[in-house]
Predict the 3D structure of the following.
Amino acid sequence: MRNEHFYPNDPADKLSLPVAADTASGAPVMVGALPGVTATAEGEGGNADGYASVWLAGVYRLPITTTTAITVGGAVYITSGGSLTPVASGNTLFGHVVEAKGTTAGEIVPVKLAKV
């Protein structure tokens, strides 16, 4: 996967799960309360339509949408639209940054997925 930063080792952390139509590979997703990153696009890689291979553990290089700086260990939340933000209100915990994020919108930062 193009944005993988550290490799998850447990095969149970790599599952075919339901995702929204047209979800791309490398996208942050929430499947119920499970934060993950797609390893395949929806319907590809042997997955049925509506499913993708989703990795549920690890650290991934992902874009954060806001211009807000985030220090190492800072929480990142996923919006209903699938973008990542440091804003908790109305969003769901997704993970924590493992390198500081500056004030550039769309900056790509390594994010460790939250454990549920």
Remarks:
- The chain has no helices and ten strands.
- The chain has a mean pLDDT of 93.
